[in-house]
Amino acid sequence: AKHDYENILVTRAVDGDTLKLETGERVRLIGIDTPEMHESEKLYRDSRKTGRDIESIKALGRKSYAFTRNLVENKRVRLEFDVEKYDKYKRLLAYAYLKDDGTFVNAKIVEDGFASLLTIPPNVKYADLFLNLYQAARENKRGLWNGG
Q: Rounded to the nearest 5°, which phi and psi values hold at 59?
């Protein structure tokens, strides 16, 4: 079944950086990483790495989730792919753009301060853009970075 990824409905945000499509497929937004909301090995790794406690990371995760949900839930998007189309969890790896106004979803989440960067070659098409947006978000204390 060839799906039309030029115009597809996001039924829900799974978390701050993962979307669910009307096809049932999950999309992991390329290049960005939002804090974990749920108990997981990654949550504990992030806690050790950042020195933040588990509950404060989860609270940030919920903020990112709310932002992404507000941005994309029940909206139609166009997906753009990079070199690798799937990750090991069989999720689509993509850049998403809102159909109504063209907003570049991955970039917007970083720009407004709700994601860190996660650059995994070979999917690096917009890595420089994301880096610039991330640095500006941190400097201007946007989103998760205000009061960090």
A: -65, -40
